[in-house]
Write a structure and sequence with these properties.
Blueprint lengths: L1 E4 H14 L5 E7 L2 E7 L15 H13 L3 E9 L8 H5 L7 E6 L7 E8 L2 E5 L1 E4 L2 H20 L2 E4 L4 H14 L3 E7 L5 H13 L3 E6 L6 H4 L5 H20 L3 E3 L13 H7 L5 H4 L4 H10 L25 H16 L6 E5 L2 E5 L5 H5 L1 H14 L3 E4 L18
Helix pairs in contact: 4-5, 4-11, 5-11, 8-9, 12-14
Length: 409
Amino acid sequence: MLPLERHYIDEIIAHASDEKPNEACGLIAGQQGRAVKLFRGKNVDGNKRTRYTIDPREMLRVLQEIDDNGWELLAIYHSHPFSEAYPSATDVALAFYPDSYYLIVSLASPERPVLRAFRIVDKVISEAEIEIKTSERSSSTQQKYETLKAMIRQMGSALVAYSGGVDSTLLLKVCKDVLGDKVLAVIAVSETYPAQEIRDAEAMASQLGATYEIITTEELANEKFASNPPDRCYYCKTELFSKLQQMARERGLGYVLDGSNYDDLGDYRPGRQAGRELDVRSPLLEAQLTKDEIRDLSKQLGLPTWNKPSFACLSSRFPYGHQITRDKLVQIDAAEQFLRGLGFTQVRVRHHDSIARIEVPRELMSGLLADDVSEQIAGRLKEIGFTYVTVDLQGYRTGSMNETLGRAP
């Protein structure tokens, strides 16, 4: 029997859906027979629709991480986009790990995906039962969710600073469910946010049935913001929250809320100071909901943003002390749109004057560096105005510009 927590099953099915019509593949690390981490793999097979081959470099990296942590290779999974969830002759021939489970998810009926587990030893197939486990995290998350709803219910009415991201969408959803028409979403249009993000936020607010309004902020007109000091976000949030508090008073709404979460306490966030000064509340943070928990809840509630890549305003792409201008913001927006169009949905292009520093998750670097892809990227970013195009070997991470804070000159 293979015990698997529900979120691992959901992630395997989501990966398979993302890759269809090609086969998806990946690995699950375990400890004492229980899954501890799932690794999405990259299928580099020449016939991806009917076969899978996990990128050897990724495979080596993952196996090394498993070994370093004292884990085991619990399972190898892949999808059958159009056929049943049963090992094919090719699957059996390539089953080189007799101590691991082989998971196959079938999307032959997309509305009813089927996941099955097998052992394959000496080419003999035996099916194993999958026991769906309830994780401690799920129980704790549910408790926090109930705390969040009770907190918002006590507020009576609220104005939500809404961006369309994972956090503020969950917050707006809960406010709408609990407060009904006594909630207003406000979307701020700014040169530091791409137009597509604004359109997505409007569409999502409408889908939730929430009343929303759009306001304009002009951070670049404030030299204290445009000169890009380490507390840049303080000036941006001060302007935004001041406008939102005025709107709340005019409309008789009791509180202004933002989507800060519990993980934000672990990073440098000067905008939080502006929130405290202007009496903005952060219910997700107050309920101690982490980013992963917010994604879990969003998925349970059917919100399409549950797996939306994290996004921060474009001003976060510049080293502190480097002037932020409209032209540079346009450069960054164009570069990131191009990379997202190539499939790198979680990406940052950091602006170092003539140098573009690209961050993508480390597991996607091999795809970024493929000859045809890297040539396309370098050519396009040079057209946009960069002289040099580089890749950050540490990969994508939030707040990478904060790594220089506190260092001696």
